[in-house]
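Translate sequence into structure tokens.
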Amino acid sequence: MKSGMKSFVLGIAGGLAVLALYLIFSPEVKQQNPVNQNTNGLTQTQDMRIFNTRFAAPPQEASFIEAAENTVNAVVHIRTEMTQRSRSYDDFYGSLREFLYGNPFHGGSRSVVGFGSGVVLSADGYIVTNNHVVEGADDIEVTFNDKRKLKATIVGTDPGTDIALIKVEANGLPFLVFGNSDDVKIGEWVLAVGNPFNLTSTVTAGIVSAKARNINILGNRSSVDSFIQTDAVVNRGNSGGALVNTAGELIGINAAIASQTGVYEGYSFAIPGNIAKKVVDDIIRFGEPQRAFLGVEIREMDEDLAKEAGESDIKGVYVARVTDNGGAKEAGMRSGDVILALDNKPVNSLSQLLEAVGQHRPGETVELQLLRNGKQLTKEVTLRNQDGTVQVVKREDSFYNADLGANFERLREDEKNELGLTYGLKVTGVKDGVLRRGGIGDGFIIFQINGKKVDNKSDLEQAMNGSGNKAIRVQGMYPNGMKISFEFLK
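Result follows.
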């Protein structure tokens, strides 16, 4: 009996000892002690010995399978080939040969091959890509996901947005439709589809890291430098490829990466789909992009400008100057106004404003929400083109001028930028006549006749007929930059 009682007491004592150890070392009991919370998702006890981590799991309902399957067949590989002339071509003698014979001298040239991606926009073969992918190309070859290869031609380009439209002769092609890039949210899942490192269609996933990002790569005062930033992996060869949402809608055209090495290091940038869609539509409808302007010079807001404008928060963009002959001046805008929103879309940076205006054409009206001397007001502004008019500019077909004996066409925007011109006509076919006798051949650019600029058929005819005598003075240049001037009699 005594032995049993002794065993019972020892059993109780052992149980109490186990309970004591549990109370001392149990994590659950430890968590009842006061804790310090920090902002990185870690909960730690005061004795610094126990950490409970809390991290969000990736959303399991997000599926990229259908979007990827629909996209890869509409994204193509683009191979370009261009002739690169050596410096010896551009010396005096090379230019003289061209002047005398009307033909470029091809000595010292070599062929350069480039690669990129493109997105099919229609069943009949329209493909959007980056301007820098096809710029200067003499030959463009498109390879589809099914290994089929077709030759492509350039329909039109816009260096100001780095968008180009090319076309292949085909039917029944798989294509993508544009989504509304204005609705894209930071943190939204996206897919980048292209041909990195000359590989076949590759799909990468990431999220939208920022919108309306200005990375200063286009280098033109009328450029729309506003990009969607993502952390989806993009590398060389992805340029011109698709950025799509999980519904498979085209919301951007991949264009650049932030890198010190030339390969992906964390961020990539895409041209917003709404901008690309508008440029493509312009090229198809008018032959060239239509750029609209408010008619203001602006500055990014800071604390000092906010105080000057009577604004309690630092938001909007500051109007430093209202230009003459612009829509803003006509609407009554003033220097010192702060633009808060365009068509009810908030604008807090130059890139946001450029992106919003870039979706419109000359002649269209936008509504601006402004702050003036601490009071809010609304102005309706009719946008104008670079010349201060509300007309869209249509690219003319090639036309013939009998007096000069040649066919002409207007310069494309990329040609103007490359040559440093804002106007001019390119010779596209020389027949018997004045230009041939003067040794002028195809590719020569005429920018003035009798001291008057020529940029279209009407300009050329008026300049030719406006001469008081029979002498006609022509000023022009070759594609290599050599300028000449000559006179002839009608």
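Note: The chain has four domains: 2-53, 63-289, 296-382, 399-489.
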